[in-house]
Each structure stands twice: as C-alpha cells, then as structure tokens.
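so my prof wants the structure for this chain in the tokens format not the other one, which i didnt know existed until like an hour ago. anyway here's the sequence
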Amino acid sequence: MNADNFSRNQAGATAIGFLIMATIVLLFGFAGLKLTPIYLEHMKIVSVLNDVKIDLDGKNPSIQEIRAGIGRRLNIEMVSAIKSQDFKIRKTERGYEVRARYENRTPYVGNLHFLGDFNNAVEIER
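here's what i got, hopefully its the right format
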C-alpha cells in the first residue's frame, strides 16, 4: 500500500461533521439550561408540600391553616410558578389530600417552548 492510496482511505471527523456534532451538543446543552430553572422550582414545590405535611401532620388542621402554611412556605422559597390558591385541598377519610398540579412553560428557540406538567400530592393526617 503506498502513501497516496492510504491518505484517500483515511476516515475521520471533517469540519462539517464537527460542526454538526457541535450544533447537536449545543442544542442539548441549551435545552438543559432552559429546563434547569423549571425543575429547580418544581423541587421547591415538592419541598413545600413535604414541609407542610411534616408541620401539620397529626394536628387536625383546617383547610385555612393548610393554605396559610403553604403560602408562608411559598414566600420563603420564592416560588412563582404556583400560588397557594392553586393548591387543591380535598378532604379524605384520614385527613386532607393537598395536590399541586400545574404547568410551567419556558421559551426555547423562536416560537418553540418547553412545557413541564407537574402533579404532586401529600396526605396530611388528622
């Protein structure tokens, strides 16, 4: 095999191939940057639900006390995706089910958006 024939058969990343790979990596990286705040806020909301459950479990709270506890925690955590009025509180046999069901949207590129649909609940026992 001579040197001229060997150089024609070499395989490797071309400039176009590299640009395509870099574009794909950048698009996924940008998506991660846009989605991170949504999931961080979701983690705060889950924490609010769990903290309210810990604080009020077994204390026979009223719906107003539950909603006030949620409102205080949302203010402390600086959550803006959902308000205390948006939490659904439903009476159950053992206490109250507190549910946070909401959507959070963030722009991606142009008129494309990411939409997060979240649904979490805890049960506060009497």
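also thought this was worth mentioning. The two ends are 84 Å apart (CA to CA).
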